[in-house]
Design goal:
The chain has about 525 residues and is of the alpha+beta class. Helices cover about 35% and strands about 15% of the residues. Strand 4 and strand 5 form a beta hairpin. Helix 11 crosses helix 14. The longest helix is centred in the middle third of the chain and has 21 residues. The structure holds glycine (GLY).
Length: about 525
Amino acid sequence: MVATVQPVATQAGLDALKAGGNAVDAAIACALTLGVVDGHNSGIGGGCFMTLRLADGRLLALDGRETAPAAATRDMFLREGKADPALSVDGALAVGVPGEPALLAYASTNFGKLPLSRLLEAAARVASSGFALDRHYASRLDATRPELARFPASRTIFLRADGTPWRAGERLVQTDLGASYRAMAEAGVDWFYRGPFAAATASWMQSHGGILTAADFAGYRIRVREPVRGTYRGWEIISFPPPSSGGVHVLEILNILENFDMKALGDRSPEFVHMVTEAMKLAFADRARWLGDPDFTPVPRGLIDKGYATELARGIQRDRTTPVSGAGTPPRAATDTFPREVGRHTTHFSTADAEGNWVACTASLNTSFGSKVVIPGTGILLNNHMDDFSVQAGVPNSFGLVGAEANAVEAGKRPLSSMSPTILLRDGRPVLSVGAAGGPTIITQTVLAILRTIDFGQDPRTALAGPRFHHQWRPDELHVEAAWGDAVVAELRKRGHVVVVDRSLGAAQAVGVGPAGSGFRGSADPRGEGSAAGW
Ligand code: GLY
């Protein structure tokens, strides 16, 4: 079973399964094809996290997050002492060393059955022959047009000769990207990290004010980490550890909510929104203080301690919102920390196979079209994940997130993420693979999908369809989907929440076990144009 945001990518995953591949091959096929048909969200110029539950029971977290270049410095985005947000969003300085190709190659070599070259070739065919743009892609293209137009190679691919963007239904052909995939199929990922692509990028960076070098590419390594693990009402939650904040805060929020009878509230009530929101605020205040790359900064394990969550839960009032002034102090904060080692943007996809391999993978260029930079002749869009660092204490990034020392820019460091590829186990058996796209809303969408699965017994489609809401502590705003309706919004305002109504929030995908505990059920987010398919 495969679930992605784009039917052509779902089909690529399914084709890999039909060709004798396993869920890991299917996930690699999805990632490579999404880089073509959903390239504004993710691609080989970006990074990804993959949570794996292998058929032999092993649990792994593969970290293909970008790293800051060796010449990166803490104040690199300041001009005259003040953060210049444009610098970390568009252009040369916004780019971190991409990690997705290295992660896909590692996953393929160690856990896949099909050669990576075959999956690259299949995705290359889609790039060279073109595909029809969906509405979402076309709308992102329209919104990002002025920034893309600044970079000639990007302009040539993504805009028509008269500078207007391609429209929904029109075919986007990416000849250079197809050729790059084929070059990598032939020469391996060294083509990317130690060969022509690294050289071309270094040379472009040098002439456009960037700091990325060929040595940065050659030095890139994925990290194989232990997933972060916890429980919610007896179900086991396996998610992504730092440098993602995702797994830690999915668990922290669930731990807080375990102190209340959520089922009794019903998942469509203002009480439900209120209680979950209060837990979200507490977790995001901790995120801003404590979270960063564990290879550079100690991240306390106590953030997912059940006793700590109970203490936080005691401060929640049922009838009104409680201001959260700052982070809490988790137990053993200085001594018990996550081990150092063992990017609506972004995209999540889930796969599972009959052998018992389950994959949850979230991939990203960060914001739409990443840095907007395509290295000429390669078709490869580069990420802007440097913006996920805290460019200056207290200065919000593109998602309005604030951070501190733990997430300051440092050479070789990974920027903090919210990506939360998560697998649920029940009685030791995998039952759900889920995750989402959309910056910090990734965490809250994932929490809601888990609550609806566990507390309300919903199948993946129903769990993803339920109306969403999001609070990230700062700014002090509760975002709710319009589907909640005026009555619920009025009730929330009565409790003191500053409510902002959005048309829709995020994009999550999930694969779960079938109703009788066998077979699979999958769902792309009903808000989008994706699909799930099984075989
Ligand atoms: N770029 C989105 C994230 O990693 O959180």
